[in-house]
Amino acid sequence: MLRPDFIDYDPKYDILTVGFGDRSDSFGDEADSDFTVMRDSATNGIVGLVVWGFGEKYRSDTLPKWPEGIDIDTESDIVSQINLPLNA
User: Where are the domains of the chain?
Assistant: First the structure.
């Protein structure tokens, strides 16, 4: 299971970026409309996620399920770590 080692939230654009290890040689796979999944160019393994509209989805309880193999507790791993406005 992948655990995040990098979390960044941009409140202006409501974008959450989560990383898992080295993302230096990766590409964005937008096959899933809920996330942009960042994949390692050599192995195709997941190295990050970009969630568009994270705060809006969180506040409306419409966040999609994390991709299989990702071990993230939204409350303790993300919301408690970022300065998420309670209302937009």
Answer: 6-79
Q: How many helices (H) and strands (E) does the chain have?
A: 1, 5
Q: How confident is the model at residue 88 (pLDDT cuts 50, 70, 90)?
A: low
The rounded distance, in Å, linking the Cα atoms of 67 and 15 is 17
Residue whose C-alpha is closest to residue 39's, from 67, 72, 7 = 67
| Type of residue found at 85 | P
Q: Which helix (H) or strand (E) holds 55?
A: helix 54-59
Q: What b/e sequence results for 32-71 when a residue is b if at least 16 CB atoms lie within 10 Å of its CB, and e otherwise?
A: eebbbbbbbeeeeebbbbbbebbbebbeeeebeebeeebe
